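Quick start: read one record
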Amino acid sequence: MRIMGIDPGLTRCGVGVVDVDAHRRSQFIAVHVARTEASLELPERLMNLNQQISDLMDTYAPDFVAVERVFSQLNVRTAMGTAQASAVALLNATSRDINTALYTPTEVKAAVTGYGRADKAQVTSMVTRILNLTTPPKPADAADALALALCHAMRGVGQQRVAAELAKQAR
């Protein structure tokens, strides 16, 4: 099963792709950071982000998309941009009939590191280790996107869906 993780953001939106087998072994496929210029008007930024995510979904054809759930931040402007980028990702997946899941940062950290309050360095280290990468994915948005994909692969719901999808593909 191919899982695309998306760490939403208007300026930098991490997109990570992993394949997961029936034994929950994950294999790195790709990682990208979709970027938009802060100098552009919001509608142009959203359209630009939409096109980049659409192209990546067409290229990698994920079976599932895991997106970071927007959480309350002190900076309302940042939270709004994250929510808007999240909506772009969810709409792209839904328009392709791809199932989606939302995970909080704490859920992702707990799934990947075993500790829900892990810092970015610990998450990056574990993503690098789990996927047998020779160098850590950078920037942090890239590592976070891969962590989202791994989170979905490791969680109970993800396990059930991976097994069901693999069984369906085997028929």
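The first strand starts at residue 2 and ends at 7.
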